[in-house]
Design goal:
The structure holds 2 protein chains of 2 kinds.
Chain A: H1 9-24, H2 34-40, H3 42-52, E1 54-55, H4 57-66, H5 71-82, E2 87-93, E3 100-105, H6 131-134, H7 155-160, H8 191-199, H9 203-214, E4 222-236, E5 245-259, E6 272-279, H10 283-295, H11 312-318, H12 321-329, H13 336-368
Chain B: H1 4-23, H2 26-36, E1 43-58, E2 65-79, E3 85-91, H3 95-108, H4 111-141
Antiparallel strand pairs in B: 1-2, 2-3
Helix pairs in contact in B: 1-3, 1-4, 2-3, 2-4
The chains are: A alpha+beta, B alpha+beta.
C-alpha cells in the first residue's frame, strides 16, 4: 500500500540552498572555473565522461563542480543530461591504429615498431606528496624531441602474423552492434553488448573483479600486450552528404590484454585476448575492462565458469554505478509505511513467540509437578 | 562534362575542408572568419542544434564493432542567396562555430570565393592544427624509452 504524505517542501528548498552554499565553499576564495577543472582535474573529468557515457569535457567539468567532486553523483548528472539530447546517429568505428599517440607501451615486446612512449604517466613517480605543488610552483615546460613520424601498429597485429594469437574478435557479418541504451539487456549477451556495458561500467567494480581474476578467481594469465592513449578521429556518415564527415577528435585509452590459453577440443593452444576501450585517459579502467572482457569469454572458450568475474549476469547487472547507487541510495527515502507494516508483523510474531514459550513453560512445570 | 576524377577531387577537397573546420578551435575559426569580412547573409535551413552521436569502436581494435558511448555534436545547414547549401558538423556544443563552418562550407563551393576561403581561412587553420599536433608528438617523443643493454662478464 502506498499513502501519499506531503510536507518537507520548505526543508528541501533550504537544504538545496545550503548545498549551494557549501559547494561554493569559502566565499573569500575565488570560485573554481570549469576551464580549471577541465584542464587541471582532467582525469576526474575523463572518468565522468567514461562512466557518464558522454564525451564532452565542458559538461563533465560542470558535473564535477556541481557534484562537489563526488564522482558518482557527477556521472549521474551527465547520464541524466544525455537523455535530453536527440541522437543524430552512430559513428564509423574509430581506428585506434591511426591514433595520435600520447602514451603507448607494451609489457610483452620491448622493441616494437614505434617504441615505448611513457607519456604523462604516474608510473615511476615515488608517490611522495609534493610540497612544491602545494605552494603552487610552476613546473618546467615539457622536453621535446623531434622525430620522424613512425607508424605504430597495434601489438596484436604484430603477434597475429605468427598465428599464435587469436584474431580481433568477430561477430556475424551483418550484425548491427547491440545497443544496451536502446534495448533492455538480456542474458546471455553478445560480446559487443558486454563491451558497451563494461566501457561505461564503474572503475572500482571492474578493478576489483579484474584483481579477483589475478588472485585466482577465474585466473586467465594476462599480459598487458599494449596500452595506448591518444586522440582518434571520429567520422560519421550522414544522409545529406555522400562522403564520411570528420567530426573532430576524442581521447581514448585502449588496452590489449593477451592471455594464455591451453586450447580446447576445437582450438589449438594459443594466446587469447581481452579488450578494453574507454573515453579519456584511464589505463586502470581500460586494463580492468580488458581483464573482465576476457573473463566473461569463458563460455565461448569452453572454460569452466567458477568465479564471479566470469559470471556475465552478475558482472553486467552490477557494473553500472548509476543503477547501483540508485537502488542502494533509494533506501534512505521515506519507507514509513513499509516499515510500519513490518513493525506490526514483527510485533505479532513476537507475541506468538512469547505465547509459545509461556505454553511450553507451563507444560514443563506441570510435568515436573 | 565533368569527369569522374574531377568530381572525386572536388568531393575530396570539400571533405578535407569540412574536417579542418570541424577540428579547428572555435576561437581560431571565428577570428579568421571575422578577418575575411565576408557577409553572413545566408538563410538558416537547420540548427545550429546540438545532439548526440554514439561513438563506435572495434573489439580487439579491428574486429566487430561495438558502441562505446555518446559524444555531443552540433550541426548546422545554411543556404546562400546564390543557392549553395553548406553543412557543418563538429564535436562539442559551439553553435556559433558550427554555423560559421557551414557558411564557409557553402562559400567554399563558389568558384569566385574558393581561393580566398582557402587562403584566408583553411590554410591558416591547417597550419595551426598541424603545429599543435607537432608539439604533441615532440613532447611524447621525448618520453620514448631508449633501451640499452648492460653487458657483464667475458662472453
Amino acid at each position: 500500500m502506498y499513502v501519499a504524505v506531503k510536507g518537507g517542501e520548505a526543508a528541501i528548498q533550504n537544504a538545496h540552498r545550503l548545498l549551494a552554499d557549501r559547494r561554493r565553499g569559502d566565499r573569500n576564495m575565488p570560485a573554481i572555473t570549469l576551464a580549471q577543472i577541465a584542464s587541471q582535474l582532467s582525469l576526474a573529468v575523463d572518468r565522468v565522461m567514461s562512466e557518464g557515457s558522454l564525451y564532452d569535457t565542458g559538461l563533465a567539468a560542470l558535473a564535477v563542480k556541481q557534484a562537489r567532486g563526488d564522482m558518482i553523483e557527477a556521472i549521474f548528472l551527465l547520464r541524466a543530461y544525455r537523455t535530453t539530447l536527440p541522437r543524430f546517429g552512430y559513428t564509423r568505428p574509430i581506428d585506434t591504429a591511426a591514433m595520435l599517440v600520447e602514451r603507448r607501451l607494451s609489457a610483452t615486446y620491448k622493441d616494437l615498431p614505434g617504441g615505448q612512449l611513457l607519456g604523462p604517466t604516474f608510473d615511476y613517480t615515488h608517490r611522495l606528496l609534493d610540497p612544491d605543488l602545494a605552494e603552487g610552483a610552476e613546473p618546467a615546460a615539457p622536453e621535446t624531441r623531434s622525430e620522424a613520424e613512425e607508424a605504430m601498429p597495434r601489438v596484436s597485429d604484430i603477434l597475429a602474423n605468427e598465428g599464435l594469437i587469436e584474431e580481433d574478435g568477430a561477430l556475424p557479418e551483418n550484425r548491427e552492434p547491440g545497443d544496451i541504451t536502446r534495448e533492455p539487456p538480456e542474458f546471455p549477451m553478445e560480446r559487443d553488448q558486454r563491451l558497451q556495458a563494461l566501457s561505461r561500467g564503474d572503475e572500482g567494480f571492474l578493478l576489483a573483479l579484474g584483481y579477483s581474476t589475478q588472485r585466482g578467481y577465474g585466473r586467465n594469465h594476462p599480459f598487458a600486450g599494449e596500452i595506448r592513449i591518444g586522440e582518434v578521429d571520429v567520422e560519421i556518415d550522414v544522409p545529406e552528404l555522400d562522403f564520411p564527415l570528420t567530426l573532430g577528435r576524442i581521447r581514448v585509452t585502449e588496452c590489449q590484454m593477451v592471455n594464455q590459453f591451453k586450447g580446447s577440443k576445437k582450438v589449438p593452444p594459443q594466446f587469447t585476448r581481452g579488450y578494453g576501450l574507454v573515453f579519456g585517459q584511464s589505463e586502470r579502467k581500460a586494463m580492468a575492462m580488458s581483464l573482465c572482457d576476457r573473463a566473461l569469454r569463458a563460455g565461448e572458450l569452453d572454460e569452466d565458469i567458477t568465479a564471479p568475474a566470469q559470471d556475465e549476469e552478475f558482472v553486467i547487472s552490477h557494473c553500472d554505478n548509476v543503477q547501483a547507487t540508485g537502488f542502494v541510495e533509494h533506501l534512505k527515502l521515506p519507507h514509513y509505511v513499509d516499515f510500519q507494516a513490518e513493525l506490526g508483523l514483527v510485533r505479532q510474531m513476537r507475541r506468538e513467540y512469547e505465547e509459545r514459550r509461556e505454553g511450553a513453560d507451563t507444560e514443563r512445570r506441570e510435568a515436573a509437578e | 562534362m565533368v569527369s569522374r576524377q574531377e568530381r572525386q577531387a572536388v568531393t575530396e577537397r570539400r571533405r578535407e575542408a569540412m574536417a579542418v573546420l570541424a577540428m579547428a578551435s572555435g576561437s581560431d575559426l571565428l577570428q579568421l572568419w571575422n578577418e575575411t569580412g565576408l557577409p553572413d547573409d545566408a538563410e538558416t535551413l537547420r540548427g545550429p542544434e546540438t545532439g548526440l552521436v554514439t561513438v563506435r569502436g572495434r573489439m580487439g581494435g579491428g574486429g566487430a564493432s561495438f558502441n562505446i558511448g555518446e559524444a555531443t555534436v552540433t550541426r548546422a545547414t545554411i543556404k546562400l542567396p546564390t543557392g549553395e547549401v553548406g553543412h557543418a558538423y563538429a564535436l562539442g556544443r559551439e553553435k556559433l562555430k558550427v554555423r560559421v563552418a557551414a557558411l564557409i562550407d557553402a562559400l567554399h563551393q563558389r568558384p569566385d570565393l574558393e581561393a580566398r576561403i582557402e587562403e584566408k581561412i583553411l590554410a591558416p587553420l591547417r597550419t595551426r592544427l598541424s603545429e599543435t599536433d607537432a608539439v604533441r608528438r615532440a613532447e611524447t617523443a621525448a618520453t620514448k624509452v631508449d633501451f640499452f643493454t648492460m653487458v657483464r662478464g667475458e662472453d
